[in-house]
Design brief:
The chain is mainly alpha-helical. It folds into three domains: 54-79, no CATH class; 91-501, no CATH class; 508-557, Transcription Regulator spoIIAA (2-Layer Sandwich). 61% of the residues lie in helices and 3% in strands. The chain is built from 23 helices and five strands. α5 runs antiparallel to α17, α13 runs antiparallel to α14 and α15 (338-369) packs parallel to α17. It is globular. It starts with 9 loop residues before the first helix and ends with a helix. Residues 528-558 form the STAS domain. The chain crosses the membrane at residues 148-165, 177-198, 210-228, 258-279, 286-307, 344-366, 378-398, 418-436, 443-465, 477-500.
Length: 558
Amino acid sequence: MPRTVSDGGEALDAEIASRTSSHRRTDNGHQPGYKVGFPPKKRLIDEFTDAVKETFFADDPLREYRDQPRYKKVLLGLQHIFPVLDWGRHYTFRKFRGDFISGLTIASLCIPQDIGYSKLAGLLPQYGLYSSFVPPLIYALMGSSRDIAIGPVAVVSLLLGTLLQNEIDPNKNRDEYTRLAFTATFFAGVTQAALGFFRLGFIIEFLSHAAIIGFMAGAAITIALQQLKGFLGIANFTKKTDIISVMKSVWENVHHGWNWQTILIGASFLAFLLVAKYIAKKNKKLFWVAAIAPLISVIISTFFVYITRADKHGVVIVKYIKRGINPPSANLIYFTGPYLTKGFRIGVVAGMIGLTEAIAIGRTFAGMKDYQIDGNKEMIALGTMNIVGSMTSCYVATGSFSRSAVNYMAGCQTAVSNIVMSMVVMLTLELITPLFKYTPNAILASIIISAVLGLIDYHTAYLIWKVDKLDFLACLGAFFGVIFSSVEYGLLIAVAISLAKILLQVTRPRTVLLGNLPRTTIYRNIDQYPEATLVPGVVIVRVDSAIYFTNSNYVKDR
């Protein structure tokens, strides 16, 4: 039986086998036998140390510190924690120009989104803006991605709001609800930083890409359905998130609960936002059209409501956003009492989802620009910014795909674009928030709906269907779990199916027969290569997995 290889390693293994065979063959055509040597015997402690090193420190992170003077080691250590000390030495005005334009562009997008996302999380509008002020500053100092834009995101906001409202009703206990949100944010940060510090980032890999695609699509539909309350002007709306309860609530209010002025505002600006996104998609040079469309919508709709006093005719408005930058909130975090364990549980779940999304976004844009990001360093940066954020009145922040895409297309060069965005948000909090008083909730609903539609990646879902039906089952399971039950059950289903697939592939590995490609020394799967022919008298089998105690009997039977 040949040693286990993957599909990508077939050519290499076949070539090695061919060369080995040619070296072994003697002039008279006989193949001499070779003794197989045993590896050098190691002490138990050495074996354990080597196993830990291979598992957690395969990249040998301390190699650059060897044979360096003390001051150099200190400098390298500081640069590892704060990458800005490394790339900042080579920063130029030309790079700043690109970062400045990018920062202004994503700020125009994030301000209206943040107000809407904070409502999605069940928090007051200013907390969304707070979360786009402090966390981006921390990330700019500690993060390794040049393109990721930091702030609140739709999926994490929905997840956080759902889990928090299962514990506390924000309408009855607003202060306790906000404190629990800060507690959850603190433990989300602790979870993220701990995973990076102990180099346990591989844990997030257990949530398969297919499950994430299904979860995100289901969450997008759930978020869009939740916005029907503001979009239609419904006062008495269900607190449940499943599609049946939401549609039932919408239908029950169809005669007396809908407000036609609100629907007119929402539908008009939703159409405007979708057209702007279509223009930007068709012509990449016009990406800024989609980026500034939400802010333009807020300005026009707010002015329209103010001059017509539509709020007197049933159009619900934001009313009040607290002025000023983030107040300290470290003393509001629950470190004792029953809410401590609840905040920890909610924070771990929200932190893992935020981490998964941010790492995926960072790797995507790093691949497009051909640079590397350190996954463990990213986790520490994201965790630190959420820990600091929880102490400065922020809720869970992470990388936003829509904002990061705009940041990338606007020509960002470094994380300074996050600093520029943060400064614009700070000026907004200090000077402009009173102007949002007459902003209708319908426009915020339209902005969120247009934003989350991009989370439905049906092209990738179709590709998953074509490639792997079991992966598509994981995608569907997560999708239907979210829209027909709740976000947390959808997440649970996604994780369960992902783990089940891993166990199935380990215990029942694929075994294939290999045949020789004519006139070559290359061997390939006979099912994939019809030209491959079996070697008479020899059965060549490839097992697409390492052989463990869990699959040894299965492999033997096969």
